[in-house]
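Please fill in the sequence for the structure shown.

STRUCTURE ENCODING:
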């Protein structure tokens, strides 16, 4: 039983970290990761609904389409 709880907690932390990093790449607040960590069932679908469709280029800082791999 304890192993299941640890696994669920690990998945929650991993998803929260991913959301935080994804939000930062998209120029959004990294607080989305905190919201997902606190209330996953509400904030994860909300994040997918409102997240920006573009990503910031690491080299130049310009917005690039998510379908492009190079800027």
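FILLED IN BY: designer on duty
SEQUENCE:
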């Amino acid at each position: 039983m304890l192993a299941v709880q640890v696994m669920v907690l690990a998945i929650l932390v991993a998803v929260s970290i991913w959301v935080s990093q994804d939000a930062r790449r998209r120029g959004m607040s990294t607080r989305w990761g905190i919201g997902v960590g606190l209330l996953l069932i509400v904030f994860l679908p909300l994040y997918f609904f409102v997240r920006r469709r573009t990503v910031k280029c690491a080299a130049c800082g310009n917005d690039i389409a998510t379908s492009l791999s190079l800027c």
